[in-house]
Design brief:
The complex is a heterodimer of chains A (114) and B (112). Chain A is an all-beta fold and 114 residues long. Chain A has no helices and eleven strands. Chain B is built from no helices and twelve strands. Classes of the chains: A mainly beta (114), B mainly beta (112).
Chain lengths: 114, 112
């Protein structure tokens, strides 16, 4: 149980375009979902926390207008990188949590902006 | 302030020898502690977790960790390393189930 999926696993987009990444909890309802970014050979950096039906809470230094997060249902959260630039290239990982219990991580999405 | 420190950025062991990955934390609250493993270009897999029950926690793949409150440590150990254990390991501290802090990670190399 407690499986989290992400789609796509890899995406390449051109500078200036937007790309959407989906995070789904497959076998449980996630009251909270988290989005992380991981730079090469680095640890995970929390970008934002989203609760179903409410606005996401962004960590300091993360541009909320650039990284749009929507948590429309208890099983789906999306991260949209708007007007992507090459420096946005990274590994994005989501996680889902049920009422403050442990987080279950998705497999990650590798974004490359050309 | 809450923080987590992984004391070694990389550890190299020979196959069949013990593994020790060190983690210290700082917390004003009673934390939950986790160890995750990440293989290249993959997501995170939970190895084990401590949530105020037994201080010696057994996880998957023969890993275990001991919570030592007096030393604020949660070191990860395995008696005998396998080649497949080569990966990045993260010590994670969670407070109140929401605020989560990742350690910087320890890269484990296993030599044949």
């Amino acid at each position: 149980g407690a499986v989290v999926s992400q789609h796509p696993s890899r995406v390449i987009c051109k500078s200036g375009t937007s790309v959407k990444i989906e995070c789904r909890s497959l076998d449980f309802q996630a009251t909270t979902m988290f989005w992380y970014r991981q730079f090469p050979k680095k640890s995970l950096m929390l970008m934002a926390t989203s609760n179903e039906g409410s606005k996401a809470t962004y960590e300091q230094g993360v541009e909320k207008d650039k990284f749009l997060i929507n948590h429309a249902s208890l099983t789906l959260s999306t991260l949209t990188v708007t007007s992507a630039h090459p420096e946005d290239s990274s590994f994005y990982i989501c996680s889902a949590s049920l009422q403050g219990h442990e987080q279950y991580f998705g497999p990650g999405t590798r974004l490359t902006v050309t | 302030a809450q923080s987590v420190t992984q004391l070694d950025s990389h550890v190299s062991v020979s196959e069949g020898t013990p593994v020790l990955l060190r983690c210290n934390y700082s917390s004003s609250y009673s934390p939950s502690l986790f160890w995750y493993v990440q293989h290249p270009n993959k997501g995170l897999q939970l190895l084990l977790k401590y949530t105020s029950a037994a201080t010696l926690v057994k996880g998957i793949n023969g890993f275990e960790a001991e919570f030592k409150k007096s030393e604020t440590s949660f070191h990860l150990t395995k008696p005998s390393a396998h080649m497949s254990d080569a990966a990045e390991y993260f010590c994670v501290v969670s407070f109140g189930g929401f605020k989560t802090i990742f350690g910087a990670g320890t890269r484990l190399f296993v030599k044949a």
